[in-house]
Design brief:
Blueprint (H helix, E strand, L loop, with lengths): L8 H17 L1 H14 L5 H18 L5 H23 L3 H9 L10 H13 L3
Helix pairs in contact: 1-2, 1-3, 2-3, 2-4, 3-4, 4-5, 4-6
Length: 129
């Protein structure tokens, strides 16, 4: 997964495809490996983190019926945290665009998701002046 940091888009695409391919035969193993990698590399630049997150999304969507409930729950929580972190990182440069996107998650009369609120809080901390 270290190759996701390669600047060549073809290499990045190959890593994505390899993760998805391996995820077809061993979805839980790949999801756990991706999760562990993201935890160990919490300073990974957001474009590279996105490659891994997209691969995780594809593996989950393709194998949702095969996943153990506890794995799915943990992956979803970790995935949402990682996605929130990506938005906060992008928001350090493009705060208006990120805020615009996150605001679409607010619906009248519906309590916002925990990670939407956490993302707002982290955006405000990272962009406070």
């Amino acid at each position: 997964m270290d190759a996701t940091t390669d600047k060549d888009p073809l290499v990045q695409e190959q890593i994505y495809n390899a993760l998805c391919y391996l995820g077809e035969s061993e979805p839980e193993e790949i999801l756990n490996s991706c999760d562990e990698y993201l935890r160990q590399h919490d300073k990974l630049a957001y474009p590279h983190r996105v490659i891994i997150l997209k691969a995780m999304e594809t593996v989950v969507k393709s194998n949702i019926a095969l996943l153990d409930k506890s794995t799915a729950k943990e992956v979803i929580r970790d995935w949402q945290q990682a996605a929130s972190n990506v938005l906060v990182a992008v928001g350090q440069r493009f705060i208006n665009k990120v805020m615009e996107e996150v605001l679409t998650k607010f619906q009248p009369g519906i309590l916002p998701h925990y990670f939407v609120m956490q993302t707002f809080a982290n955006l405000s901390v990272s962009n406070g002046e």
